[in-house]
Structure formats: structure tokens, C-alpha cells
Amino acid sequence: MPRGVIPRQPAKSGRQEGRPAAPGDLRGRPQRKNSRNRATAALPGARKTRSGSSRATRGSAGYQPTSPERVAEILKRLDQLYPNATCALKHSNAWELLVATILSAQCTDVRVNMVTPELFRRYPTPPAFAALKPEELEPQIRSTGFFRNKSKSLVGAARTLVDEFGGQVPDEMDKLLALPGVARKTANVVLGTWFGKAEGLVVDTHVHRIARRLELTRNNDPKMIEQDLMKAVPREKWIVFSHQIIWHGRTLCLARRPKCADCALENLCHAADKTWSTVEMHKNAK
Question: How many C-beta atoms lie closer than 10 Å to residue 72's C-beta?
Fold first, then answer.
């Protein structure tokens, strides 16, 4: 390359050369002075100014990130991308799912799925876990991280199930939350995946990050994020939405370098750290 010539980089806003235009994406046309405004007019929530141009400005009356129309479009595209999304933790009953979910804290599902088969072979029921001392369980789950706290939680949860619930995993939120080591994330996984009950949304690291990037919440606390998502997403989609976002975070919307050019949500996303954008970026969307 000749000295002094800098290779062209994808702009933070505006059409990116070499990327085919998506249906309805006005950025596939040659750009003129006000092309950004015309492109955002195609997005849900865009409004026209007095001058006749369109704007999709964060916080304005025209651009509403959680508008029913925008959320419906996000859900539609997620359904197309991940039509059969479900929990990646291997399990055959509610107790195994509860154990796997507790172990998955600060650990990958892949690692958990490597540990649980032998664990369940040795201790197949809550009474078998309840008979253990936490120290006996630690070596078998060490590779999942935080193994001391997880051992205490698993043995404590098993003993509580045996003493108060007849050894059966309850299907009610308040009863699940009474188990050691169980917070709303774990309870929502068990209720949604095993019992098919939509009592809330699973907010793991992927849902936390992507919900903020999509501007479905401005909060950073998982409890508040869940409340925001419960308001924005229809209840009948709560269970699958969480699984779809988790899969999206693993395959396309990667934390360190999202694959924005390949993402079906690209022209609905204004995240500040996008690696490719055909729409205006919002500095607080991250």
C-alpha cells in the first residue's frame, strides 16, 4: 500500500461498502448529504422534523427503544435466527437442572455438562446429595469454580428439599427462592425450562449485556433489568426470549468483538461498540 494511504474503515454511521443491503435498508443506496436521516426513517420509532428529515434520536419522543413495534420486530428476527432455542444445560429432571444451574454460575455450560454426568451417576437424587458433607462434594465440582460455595449450596438445597418439600423440586417461585444458592436467575431457569412457567426472565451475563445494547433497559442491576424486560417483552415470549438472547450472545453478539456485519438485528441496534453499523450509534447503548 502506498505510504500515507490509510485503509478505509467502517464508518460509525452510514452505509458500509461491500455489504449487501438488507430488505428495506435504505443505506444500500448511494449516499447523499441527508442519507442518515432517510435511513433511520425506515426504522420503527423514527419521526419527521419540521424540515422534513427524519430522526431516530435516543430519548426523543420519536425514537422509543421499547416501543411494541420495535420489540415485536426484534422478537420476530430472534424467532427466525433461533427457532428452537432452549437451555443448553443437560438434565433429565428438575433436580438435575437445578444442580446444573447452580454450578453454571461464573462457569460455562460446556464445563458444567462435562461435570454433571458423573456427579449424577454417583448421587442421583436429592437425598443422596443431602447425605454428603460439602467438603466431600468439593473435589468433584472444583473445575466449575467457586466450588466451596457451590458445594454448600447444593448440599443445603438438597437437605431443604428433603426436609421441607418431600425431596421434590417445587414449582413455585417463592419456594424455590427459599433454597440455599437459588436466586431469581436459577429459579427462572427451572420454572421456565422444566415446568414451562413464565414467572420472570432469566438474566445471565448475555441477557444483561445484550438487553442494554438493544436499549431494552438502562439499568445495570439484574433485578431491575428483569423488571424492565418483563414490561417490554410479552409474557408468552419470556421463556424463549431469554434462551434466544443467550444463544445470540454465544454465536453472534460476542462480548469482545460482536459480529455485527452478520447480525440480523444490525439495523435495529445502535450499540456504541458495534464493529459494523448502518445506523446511528448511541453512546450510552452498551
Answer: 14
Nearest to 115, CA basis, from 131, 93, 91, 136 = 91
The reply to whether 286 falls in a domain is no
Please give the model's pTM, rounded to 2 decimal places.
Answer: 0.78
Same domain, 120 and 190: yes
User: Residue written as cell 460476542?
Assistant: 254
pLDDT at 24 > cutoff 70: no
- Is the per-residue pLDDT at 1 higher than 90? no
Task: Report if residue 283 sits inside a domain.
Answer: no
Indicate if 204 belongs to the active site.
yes
Mean of the pLDDT values across residues 113-138?
97
Average pLDDT over residues 133-147: 96
Which of the residues 150, 204, 228, 274 is marked catalytic? 204
The answer to the question of residue 54 being in a domain is no
Does 175 score more than 80 pLDDT?
A: yes
CA–CA distance, 162 with 170 (Å, rounded to integer):
11
CATH no. for residue 249? 1.10.1670.10
Cβ contacts of 251-258, under 8 Å, gap ≥ 24: 253/206, 253/209, 253/210, 253/213, 255/205, 255/209
Please confirm, yes or no, whether 185 is among the known catalytic residues: yes
> Is 44 domain-assigned?
no
**Do 117 and 157 fall into the same domain?**
yes
Structurally, how many domains does the chain consist of? 2
Structural domain containing residue 168: 94-194
Question: Is residue 47 within a helix (H) or strand (E), and if so which, with residue range?
Answer: strand 47-48
Is residue 146 over pLDDT 90?
yes
How high is the mean pLDDT of the chain? 85
User: Which of 25, 150, 185, 274 is the catalytic position?
Assistant: 185
